[in-house]
Amino acid sequence: MAILECQKVSKAYGGLLAVNNLTFAVEPGEVFAIVGPNGAGKTSLFDCISGVSPATSGVIRFREREIQALRPHRICQSGLARTFQTTVAFDSQTVLTNVLVGSAFGREGENPFLSFGEEAQTAALDALALCGLAGRQRAIAGQLPVLARKRLMLATALATRPGLLMLDEPFGGLNPGERGEMIALIRDVARTGVTILMIEHVMKAVQALADRILVMDHGLEIAQGPPSRVLRDPRVIAVYLGTLRPMGEDSEPAHA
Ligand SMILES: Nc1ncnc2c1ncn2[C@@H]1O[C@H](COP(=O)(O)OP(=O)(O)O)[C@@H](O)[C@H]1O
Ligand SMILES: [Mg+2]
């Protein structure tokens, strides 16, 4: 049984159809990647699933329950967490406070008055340890370098104790060495049993992590399946390179 199902999901901004009739399902325990050029509608799709901006039409089910009409905090509390393309945090607060906020608000029944119960504290400390930030709890979020900020956003999302974690371009802005560290971190997270739905441009990372891939262009599905098949699909190569050359590891989309 799929953990997440999207059926004929569309998102219109006025006359622009950013997501066009997409259907796919994510199985428990897999890493599912969504790739495609800038403007393909990937983030809009994430916004629909996470409730940040509701889908115009279609059905979205998480753990067999329809969520397309739920508010984002309810979706998060039901076990679906996300990160954002630009790294967001409470910049004036410490690393620990940021992650505690995730653990306190990301669960139904947690009290909303910023007094953190034992369970919330344990979840926060576990998330920090998993994300390699155990030694930086007192650092101010706004002063962290880029990779540590990304680790923090991931830890904050994980502290909500999600069953499905959605990552919007976790490799954006990282150098090759940092990309390697992020691949290792996402693998560690996946190993804890969290299902991962990931938007990514960096092909090396997609190839290293993804069990299945959905390729989007102009809101539409171009291809869907295992990387070995999808990355050889001529339509996918055309979207990425505008030619029929095989895709290189670090290929960027043709009109990114
Ligand atoms: N809030 C919005 N209002 C209007 N248009 C938007 C909005 N968000 C995204 N778009 C448009 O929707 C299309 C898809 O954007 P986006 O989902 O950000 O693509 P991607 O994440 O694949 O780069 C783009 O043409 C973009 O300009
Ligand atoms: Mg995007």
Q: Please bin the fraction of helical residues.
A: 25-40%
CATH topology of the largest domain: Rossmann fold
- CATH-wise, what's the superfamily of the largest domain? P-loop containing nucleotide triphosphate hydrolases
Number of domains: 2
CATH class call of the largest domain = Alpha Beta
What is the correct CATH architecture of the largest domain? 3-Layer(aba) Sandwich
Low-confidence stretches are none
Structural class: alpha/beta
Oligomeric description of these chains: single chain
Widest β-sheet, arrangement of strands: 6-7-8-3-9-10
Report the count of strand segments: 10
**Spatial extent as radius of gyration:** 18 Å
Separation of termini? 35 Å
C-alpha geometry = globular
Proportion of β residues?
Answer: 15-25%
Mean pLDDT: 91
**Main beta sheet strand tally, sense and closure:** 6 strands, mixed
Which compounds are bound in this model? adenosine-5'-diphosphate, magnesium ion
**What is the ordering of alpha helices and beta strands?**
EEEHEEHEHHHEHEHEEHH
